[in-house]
Specification:
Order of helices and strands: EHEHEHEHEHEHEEHEHEHEHE
Structural class: alpha/beta
Number of helices: 10
Number of domains: 2
CATH architecture of the largest domain: 3-Layer(aba) Sandwich
Radius of gyration: 21 Å
Distance between the termini: 61 Å
CATH class of the largest domain: Alpha Beta
Number of strands: 12
Shape: elongated
CATH topology of the largest domain: Rossmann fold
């Protein structure tokens, strides 16, 4: 049986304290492998964690670049630890040596779009990305706030690491939606994606909670800590919206701790389906979108039209 390897380079998928969104990426990959293996074709999964260390992820990519043979048909999926590293990663992976390019290797970048340089330089390579629009999700969070608290005011904002593409794009989207409607997004409180320390960061925040009408967190783990911190400061009435829409995030909505969460498709299943079709020849490079993005559209949980004004706000 021919066996190829699916390498996922992620941040933190630890069962304790890891990121639920990336844990679901691994679960989806495992489920896809269970369905797709058979008939003389097999797949195995290798997960490499960087734990937020840019240097470690760079070393992991470079090691793969050294190990893989020129004719490798493996799949490599990368969730970049920091923006600006994608071009370096692609160079390490696709340049087998000074004369050879790994044109059969499939590389997928998650959560960050491909730049024009990469699209041009690797146009003959099996290069894709799976990146739901981060700006759109930021705007959706803004719309939730507007529906939950139609009267404009100050919005507390908790972001991921500021070096991240997702952080900047989601914040930009929220501002584009809210600021023209009269809302003010307060200076951000930075957190890690695991949300560790998020609660204490809100407790230690120097601003006045009584001047905050709503709050946004860039993922559900942060949102849980943000809500807990607001509770400790007497702000339990403040509506909070999260993002990712994983099972823990939806549970926070169902329990009333979050007013909503934006569901971000992780793209793993779609990326692996595309990989499988390229492997068997049923899909070629010309069949891919011009930007090589196989994105799925985000949604809201509950649906946006189900978000109701909080107590004291007229609909």
């Amino acid at each position: 049986m021919k066996v190829t390897t699916i390498h996922l380079l992620l941040d933190n998928v630890s069962p304790k304290g890891g990121q639920p969104f990336q844990q679901e990426m691994v679960e989806d990959a495992e489920a896809w492998i269970a369905r797709a293996s058979g008939g003389g074709v097999g797949f195995r999964l290798e997960v490499l964690e960087s734990r937020g260390d840019r240097g470690k992820q760079k070393e992991q990519v470079e090691e793969l670049g050294r190990q893989l043979p020129p004719d490798s048909e493996d799949f490599i999926g990368i969730s970049p630890t920091a923006t600006g590293f994608v071009d370096f990663h692609l160079q390490s992976l696709y340049s087998a040596d000074t004369r050879t390019t790994r044109e059969k290797l499939t590389v997928c970048i998650f959560l960050e779009p491909l730049g024009s340089r990469a699209l041009q330089q690797y146009s003959q390579c099996r290069l894709i990305c799976a990146t739901p629009s981060q700006e759109v999700m930021g705007r959706m969070q803004g719309e939730v706030i507007h529906r939950a608290h139609p009267t404009p005011g100050n919005v507390l904002y908790m972001s991921g690491p500021l070096r991240s593409y997702q952080t900047k794009a989601r914040l930009r989207g929220a501002r584009e939606y809210l600021e023209p409607k009269g809302y003010s997004i307060l200076p951000t409180i930075e957190s890690d994606w695991e949300g560790s320390g998020a609660e204490d960061s809100v407790v230690d925040w120097s601003g006045r909670i009584d001047k905050v009408i709503a709050a946004i967190a860039q993922n559900d783990s942060m949102a849980a800590g943000l809500k807990a911190g607001l509770l400790r400061r007497g702000g339990d009435h403040i509506p909070v919206v999260g993002l990712d829409g994983t099972a823990p995030g939806r549970a926070l909505v169902d329990s009333g701790k979050l007013v909503a969460t934006i569901v971000q498709p992780n793209g793993v299943t779609g990326a692996l389906e595309t990989y499988s079709r390229m492997l068997d020849g049923s899909q070629g490079l010309s069949d891919l979108p011009a930007d090589r993005d196989i994105r799925a559209e985000p949604s809201c949980y509950p649906a946006l039209d189900k978000v109701r004004p909080v107590s004291g706000q007229a609909g």
